[in-house]
Each structure stands twice: as structure tokens, then as C-alpha cells.
Amino acid sequence: MPWLSHQSLRILKYFMEHPRAELAGAELIREVGLLSGTVYPILIRFERRGLVTSKWEESEPSVLGRPRRRMYRLTGEGHRVAREALADLRTLDAPLPAAAKA
Amino acid sequence: MNLLLAVLTGVIAREASAWLPSVAREVIHLAALRFRDRDLADRYREEWLAAIAEIPGPIGALVHAVSLLCSVRSIERSCAAEVLAADVEQRFQELEGAVEAFSTAFRGACSDRGLALEEIHAVTKVSLKDLQALQSGDLPRISMGYLRVFDYLSDLPTMLGPAMPEIQGRYLDLLGRPGGLPPTPAQTTAQRAARIWCGLAGHQARTYFIHSERELPFHWRYRRCSRCGDVSEMRSEPCQGKMVRSKRTWDSPPVERFTCEDDYPWAYRSLESPDWHPRFGRVNPDRERSAVKSLDNGLAAE
Fold first, then answer.
1. Which residue of B has its CA nearest to A24?
2. Distance from CA of A16 to the nearest CA of B (A)
3. Mind listing the pLDDT tens digit for each residue in B129-148?
């Protein structure tokens, strides 16, 4: 996955840890610890590639007493890509055979 | 003196805490205004207002809002790269489909209402040759190109029945719609610095075109500032140009170009107003649609 940056991987990892959850952008910013200016471009890129889907909260703003949040959720394709990318990362992280022998 | 300072500090702090949330909201509105795509602007305005509402402190909310303001261009660049990769050719196909749908509807409406082309010609004063081309969907044959279709559509609803305004609406949606941003390479430091100058004095813009290889009667047009590298949103337009190939000279190979590009002889215009700035240059599709509706109603009343 050459197009996945370190920040993208962190977001994917958080999604993988909460695979069924619907996450708001603000929540991702808080939990992943990235700047909002980084998270939203990544989210829209993921959405365009079909890795996540998003939808508005179902309740009306008048009922909620605040503007509606946009909720993001990992798709099946996103799950597959995330699993592969994180597996690649673990392979890279593993010690080299020579180093393991030593 | 110390007491006065303490009182003043308290008053200022209270005032600031009262005002900062609304300043943060204004920054979000400003950030949304910076999007050149209306749909993105509407979406992020609501999403970000909800995001800053969740942040507990007013200073944190303001910092968050400013960070979002800075991320607008990055989001647009992310979208632009996706749009241009495959979408331009697909959008050309959509326009082609719309042309076919129009000529089919035109033929159907003529036969349902028993209208001959001569009758339409007598009322609308559109030449028979043009009407025949319109009926057959052969748009390059229509004199003055695709642009004339709008004239036909505004004249024809009263003659061709209630289906025409709907078709006309579909056309306006397809032809007038924005096509995202063209390819936007990462800005250099010099270009980023020049952005301040462009904000004050306007862009120094050059017009660029994207044509289909199949010589369709449409093209996409956008502008790029040679100083700061900022680009305007692409729009599809009727194209009356023909592809011509310049002769090889001693120092340059033959170059293919479209004659419609000759309509922009002054490619570089210094001190051009930043008319793709959302405050100045945004086309409001709702307003366009309501203008068309009022025109149709006026024609129907006549």
C-alpha cells in the first residue's frame, strides 16, 4: 500500500480496533492524537476509495441541541486493506533472520 | 493599581470567554467559504460546527477551528487528485448520454404532439438545418455549437410539453456543474509566499483546457495562477473548437491544439481579480434553476 502514510495507518488501526463503531471526525482527532488538518483530508481520501463510509446522525439538530455529526465507519474493503497494510507493517517490524539468529 | 489591573483582567477574560465560541464558529464559516465545491462546503460546515461544539474550552475550539481553516486546501487537493484520475472521461460520457437523451425526448415530443420541424422553425426561427441536427443528436452540425441548445430549450417548453423543463433542468445540472479541481501539484515555498500577494492584488491567471480525445462538443476549462499556483474549479462548457496541428518548425515539434483556445488570446492577465474566490465567482445552481423556471413560467403565460 504505497499510498498509505503513517498517519493514515494510525487512523486505520484505530478503525480496526473499533470495527463496528461509527466514529465522528472529532473523536478520531481526540483518540488518534493527530491534527484536524491531517485527519479530515485522510478521511475524505478513504471515503473516495471506498475504505470508509460516512453518514449524518439520524436525529435532527433541533432534537440534539447541536449540529449533526458525520459518522464514519470502516467498509469491508477498508477492513481488508487495513488488515493487509497492518500485516505488512508487522512483517517490516519483525527482526531480520540474521539478527534473530545472532 | 493592582486592584484595577485585576478587575480589568477579570473583565477581559470574561468577555473573551463569551466571544471566543462565536469567533470559532465564524472561522468555521470562513473555512467553508474557502471550498470551491459547494457540496464540500455545506458538508464540512455542518461537520466542523459539530466538531468544535464537542471541544470543552473556548480556546481549544478556536485553535481547532483555525487548524480546520488551514486544512481546506489539503482536502481540496485530496479530492482533486481523485476527480481527475478517471472522472473526466466518465463525465464526458455522461454529457454524451445527456445529448442522446435530449434528442430522444425531442423526437418523442415532436411525434407525440404531431409537430413538424417546419412548425417549430416557424415559431422559434431556429433554422431547419439546426433543428434536424438537434433531432438527430448530431451536435457538431448545429451552427454555433452546443450553446444554442439552451436557446432552443427556453423556447420549446411551451410547444413541446411539460417534459422539456425537466430535460432542461437535467442539462443545466450536467453542463453547468463544477468538475472538481484540476491536478494540483504541491506548492513550492515561493508559491506559498506569493499567495499573500495574490490575495491582495488578484491572480495572474492562465486558462487551460481538457479535451476528450474523441473531439466531443464539450471541454473542461480551468485557470491556474502562474504566481501562486492556485487553480480554479473546472467547469464543463460547450466546445466549438476543432483540433488543428501546427507545422513543425526548426526548433519545435508539431503541436496539437483546439481552436477554441484562440478565444483566450491574452492568456496571461496580470492583476486579474480573484474571481474564482468563492465570494466573487461562485455560480449558484439554485439561482440558475429558479431563473430558468421563471423564464418557462413567463413563456407559458404568454
1. B51
2. 22
3. 878 877 887 766 665 555 56
| Residue in A with minimal Cα distance to B51 | A26
Smallest CA-to-CA distance from B139 within B95, B99, B90, B97 is with B99
- Inter-chain residue contact A24 with B44, CB threshold 8 Å: no
Q: How far apart are CA B63 and CA B43, in angstroms?
A: 20
Q: Contact B66/B29 with Cβ under 8 angstroms?
A: no
d(CA B69, CA A32): 20
Q: pLDDT tens digits, chain B, 302 residues: what are they? A: 787 888 888 888 788 778 888 899 999 988 888 877 777 888 888 889 988 888 888 888 888 888 888 888 778 776 665 555 456 777 777 777 777 777 787 788 788 878 888 888 887 777 788 788 778 877 666 655 555 666 666 666 676 776 666 776 776 677 666 666 676 666 777 887 887 777 777 777 778 888 776 667 778 888 888 888 877 777 777 776 777 776 766 666 666 677 777 765 444 443 344 444 443 344 445 555 565 566 556 555 65
Q: Give the cell for residue A96.
A: 531480520
| Best mutation target, B28, B37, B47, to test chain A (most A CBs within 10 A) | B47
Residue window 25-44, chain B: list those with CB within 8 Å of chain A.
43-44
Would you say the pTM of this structure is higher than 0.90? Answer: no
Mutate to test the interface with A, among B78, B83, B87 (most CBs of A within 10 A): B78
Of the candidates B148, B145, B161, B177, the one whose C-alpha atom is nearest the C-alpha of residue B105 is B161
Output DSSP code: residue B217. Answer: S
Burial pattern B101-127, b for ≥16 Cβ within 10 A else e, equals ebbebbeebbeeeebebeebbeebebe
Helix (H, G, I), strand (E, B) or coil at B206: strand
Residues in B touching A29 (Cβ below 8 Å) = 51, 64
Q: What is the widest separation between alpha-carbon atoms in chain A?
A: 65
Question: Which of A42, A49, A67 is closest, CB to CB, to B46?
Answer: A67
**Residue in A25, A35, A48 closest to B47 by CB:** A25
> Residues B166, B282: contact at Cβ < 8 Å?
no
